[in-house]
Amino acid sequence: MSILDRLAINTAIFDGHDLKTSLKVIKSLGVNKVEFAFNQGYVGQLDSDMFSATHAEYLLSLMDKEELHSDALGCTMNLASPDALEEFKLRIRFAQKLGVKYLNTCTGPIAERQTIISNLKVLAPYAEVHGCVICIENGGDHNFNAFASADDGIRILSEVAHPALALNFDPGNSVSLVPNLSPSEEAKIALPFCQHFHVKDVQVHDDRFTFPALGEGIINFKGIVSSLNQRDVSFSIEKPLRMYRRKDSFPIRGRSPESIQDISAVLTKSIQFIEQLAEDS
């Protein structure tokens, strides 16, 4: 199987555009998978209707029209919030309706780590019953620093100890939250524990972190893509192009969406970059 057969595009890059247009662009790029993004604080306002059976049917109809499919859902939220159990169970049921296996989510603040662990011990068995796996992701800002380094994530897996809990690692998030660590080395540590993976590159400016096309930032993706090429792991380009992170890692969402032309150009370069690295590995 070609590495591109396991590649999805996360819809965060289309923030502000309608899903019909977004899915048409994904299909036009020769990619056959989509990861819908429903991440609190990163893609606009979310409410319970977004996770309804009616909305699931709508998304399925859009995918059917474009001949796309999905095996992952981006659904970051604070897993220690007072309503975290019911809110995340709602997302699990939504994923099942979509036929999605992997729910990718960052965790929450380190001060609430024990609550996160306790909630995951409830949520992982619930996910298993619904045919899903929760893939906890390393955070990119301090709101989600309970899992900052790869070792943090592995320790959480060990404490919860359930087969329906795995990692979804994003080396791009390491750059802003743990700048003293190597993103590529962190990815190497995390990959054996991953059932899903995110790729995004990062440029570091004097006052912010931004997200260019893959290969145009500071992350060395050669070893990462080589490892992905050798493993049967689904992955997606998860690039919140409309957003940047301040130097303190806090996310700032731009007022206006990026143009479809710019989004398409960034994705085209990124896909070609992955394909070239995979051929060279």
UniProtKB/TrEMBL annotation:
<feature type="domain" description="Xylose isomerase-like TIM barrel">
    <location>
        <begin position="24"/>
        <end position="233"/>
    </location>
</feature>
<dbReference type="InterPro" id="IPR013022">
    <property type="entry name" value="Xyl_isomerase-like_TIM-brl"/>
</dbReference>
<dbReference type="Pfam" id="PF01261">
    <property type="entry name" value="AP_endonuc_2"/>
</dbReference>
<keyword id="KW-0413">Isomerase</keyword>
<dbReference type="InterPro" id="IPR036237">
    <property type="entry name" value="Xyl_isomerase-like_sf"/>
</dbReference>
<dbReference type="GO" id="GO:0016853">
    <property type="term" value="F:isomerase activity"/>
</dbReference>
<dbReference type="InterPro" id="IPR050312">
    <property type="entry name" value="IolE/XylAMocC-like"/>
</dbReference>
<protein>
    <submittedName>
        <fullName>Sugar phosphate isomerase/epimerase</fullName>
    </submittedName>
</protein>
